[in-house]
Amino acid sequence: MRYFFLLTLLLSFLHAEQDVKKVVYDLTTSDIGAFKQKLLSGVANNKGYYEGKLQELEVAVVIHGDAYKFFIEELKNSAYKDEKELFSQQKELKQRITSLATNYHVEFLMCGSGMKKIQLTKEQIYPFIQIVPNAAIGLIDKQNEGYAYLPIAH
User: Residue 99's closest CA among 152, 47, 22?
Assistant: First the structure.
């Protein structure tokens, strides 16, 4: 009886592990429309789909390329200060990004190497963003943890 209980417990853990899907978004786009549709709306839609199937979706986002600008706290003090469309939408974008991190538990990873190249400091980005040595390392680590790869490029 004891072994049956342990076997049942083990099988339930294995089954529960299968109910967790994982995706890492490779975010490089600078296009606001693509960013909003593919990341901001896409994550919420995908999470909803899997929750409807009683499954969990773990999401990570590796930020590099031209996507840094979406994660800067104060645009007026950055290289992106003259981007009128971005400036006009920053408040909404910040709220939606923060909601992904807080409500959907999305993990945001930013390429530290690229940050140095564009002279972006940790103090200039949202506090929930983690810095990884470079984008390749962030993507390699997540894929080796079983995350499916989805690019969001131009």
Answer: 47
